[in-house]
RNA sequence: GGUCCGUUGGAGAAGCGGUUUAACUCACAUGCCUUUCACGCAUGCAUACACGGGUUCGAAUCCCGUACGGGCUACCA
């Protein structure tokens, strides 16, 4: 068979040879030990925590080694492509402050190894596919989906492995004349690699994360170019990561299964193999109690955008992911609480081997601790950024009177305390917790009956003086308590609870609910100071009226 | 079905043949502090090495089975 002739028949428009591209994309000038990594999402309109997890690992390895981190868009699946998805991906990574050195994050692409959209690299792939055909290592296949299904069915009946391989690969044997006839009839075809492997052969492959793993040779004549002329993931991976000179292919472990295909492709193409690092997948517990991979369809709450909408601080999310990524990160962070995560020495061999469960509690703990380090200015900026992007209609309400907001935040953050409070987790939760300064709604119920509550409140408001300091204010609460059979001193109450209806704590609670609507708040006296004399008194009087 | 990866308290996870009566973080609980909450401090809980064999003086650590979980098995990535 004249393979060169076949190649020319199949790819008449391809002018360049492969060398053209090697010349076009020269060797990167990088310092010793610098790694080149990429993240290569497909624009299906959904990115979740797992994507950020991988991206963070990529980014750290690349940047801490003085290398390159780039973004490539794998838009080879025309059917699943979602409009606007690329923009969503880019803006999400931007929000989480994952920065690329080159790639598709800019318009136009930035970097010398582009284009970074696979769709635009069609000709490159075809050039290499053509060479494989010319070398007799790949061939056109005209089988329809229907035919392939039939083959699969037969294989199942015979209890043989399914797929297009060996004796089942009928298009391997097409003669040049037969192919020409089919081409003249404008029959659709794909290009398949002609596998020479055997699944009998096993070998050990070193994965940067998993260590030694056994792999079997591939024996499938995998499709490398689809009928639309666009490559499959496998082929694009081999070509792109070679031409773009990726040194470590870091990807999810769902790719482990097709690693044999990639190994054979690299060999066939005569390419040097990159190092591979297969990360574990993030899991979640199902309603049924079973662990499962995060799924884009079933777990919309794990979409990255969800965290942005709720206003999780991007850095806090990254801190959490780092604890999952490298087991020694957490202890390092504990020892160096003020160091930036980029100062941590990230390494692939400290990554987990099994799928980690996503733990919202832990994320919250980390967020709280992180936000508890913020200055007033930083907190204001954080909220401002959130409100102006997610809650525009509330901007006026919060930021018309910044001094008021500052007082609220100072209290909520515990800036006046010896130890800071840790109430704040994420922006929307913060707004909710300070809502009591903007609206008066009763959310919690009184522990005593309405009549008692009314009495306590009435007596309290009669003596209330806005200019009292905290201790004078509290003394008045104590007086009201004592007059109504509540212990004024906690120690006394604890010693002899049976002598009292309750304690000053209970009386405080009634006042607290009247003023804030809630049982639990930061210091009540301060809240009343912030609210202002008029508002504070009015809230209590309104509550008294409601109790009638 | 085939194949690959995994399995340490509720969650993450260290330990990879002998100072292991198995670290650390989160969660949870209790106490102290305290007018509530939050913070902080202290203590505790969970009574964790999937199971069964083997190798060894000795195994969470090595080997072999089994079970369970997950991935892949597309002209999807």
Walk me through what this model shows.
The protein is mainly alpha-helical and about 550 residues long. The chain is about 45% helix and about 10% strand. The strands form six sheets. A three-stranded parallel β-sheet has the order 1-2-3, with helices on one face. Strands 4-5-8 form a three-stranded antiparallel β-sheet. A two-stranded antiparallel ribbon has the order 6-7. Helix 3 packs across helix 11, helix 18 crosses helix 21 and helix 21 packs across helix 23. The N and C termini lie far apart (about 100 Å). It binds one RNA strand of 77 nucleotides through helix 6, strand 7, strand 12, helix 12 and helix 13.
Q: Which outline best applies?
A: elongated
Report the sheet with the most strands, covering strand number, pairing sense and barrel closure: 3 strands, parallel
Supply the helix-strand structural class.
mainly alpha
Strand numbers in spatial order across the main sheet = 1-2-3
Radius of gyration: 33 Å
Question: What is the terminal-to-terminal distance?
Answer: 100 Å
Query: What is the number of strand segments?
Result: 14
Q: Approximately how much beta-strand content do the residues carry?
A: 5-15%
List low-confidence stretches.
none
Give the helix tally: 23
> Which percent range fits the helix content?
40-55%
Mean pLDDT across all residues, rounded? Answer: 91
